């Protein structure tokens, strides 16, 4: 039976906190499984005989292609079926795929395993966003999303710390003999360590989280809840095409910088400063934990603050502030010395770059009607995955391999690709504020006319 959560019920606050906490824990685990690959770039390239471009396909396209595509049908289910069940199945799937990454002995096998990680993780975020929107009022949604987004950086930091520790532990060992598996490379052990705990979290999630009551549902003349198909979600997007064009493209370029640096920063510090994987893991683990963690929480607070002060486009404005703060240090950090100064500028980049996560999500959730929220989120994640995660990481590799012709010049690639992306995101987010305000006003008028729930209307405006 669905638990009714209201402010008058003292258990509701504790339960909401628990749901955010366990969803954040799942997000942490997903980023641990996703991010560990980047720290092990050199041994994986050596043992599987890969180029930078091939490695970028493993860390970007392999994960993002089905992460984005599978997000669409999964989000449709999340708008109709039990969201905790969907999330539990997803956690189990990506944990098994991470473990299989440790069995890979070729580029093709690793590519398929990383595809599996993407398929599993596609279940988490759209369903979690949808649940949060039913659990929290819009003036508190930014903080909840900020805490959830913090999970990505706690996970990224943990991946760097754990990966650095495990690599340091087995640095003098080329192969390890495991029962039932046989001899494996030392880096493969890391995937076994990271993948298996997720199965326990999947079971805990399934047993302890209940699907919250959905609010603002569209109903037919008889009062029954009306199911909304993907075509109606697309119609809603078309009705606000200008708003979502600026939002999706602007935040995708913004995300390209943040997510690309998470993938390529380890290679940059390994090659440019001669650091070993353990040193890089600990250094980047600290940067991600402090800078990204503070940035995503401050970004969520800023969204709520601007919204509370009467700015309907508060989420877009918060994203714009972050993009402006990010663009100069992302150009400079690969070219300064010593390493401490470079890491400090990277930390500034990561702090402002993290504003994108709560800002982009809050903008989608407050504008979209209840029954299309997960689907709209999935469509955004599809574009973000293919452009920022897939395209952004591969573009840096192509510039390094094909234009500059030397993997030692990766810093120049990072400055060039992500500097341009940052400038473009500033322009698009600034231009998107006015259309977003107009869309919010139209949706509020529609909701006032439809007290049982605003039905997506592609013909509006």
Tell me what you see in this structure.
With 461 residues, the protein is mostly helical. A hairpin with a 3-residue loop joins strand 1 (175-178) and strand 2. 77% of the residues lie in helices and 2% in strands. Helix 1 (10-39) packs antiparallel against helix 8 (186-195), helix 7 (138-169) runs antiparallel to helix 12 and helix 11 (241-272) packs antiparallel against helix 12. The protein has 17 helices and 2 strands. The model is unreliable at 1-11, 219-225 and 451-461 (pLDDT under 50). A two-stranded antiparallel ribbon has the order 1-2. The chain has a single domain (10-207, 227-449), classed as MFS general substrate transporter like domains (Growth Hormone, Chain: A, Up-down Bundle), CATH 1.20.1250.20. It has helices at residues 10-39, 41-48, 52-78, 83-101, 107-121, 124-135, 138-169, 186-195, 198-208, 230-239, 241-272, 277-308, 314-332, 339-353, 356-367, 373-404, 410-449; strands at 175-178, 182-185.
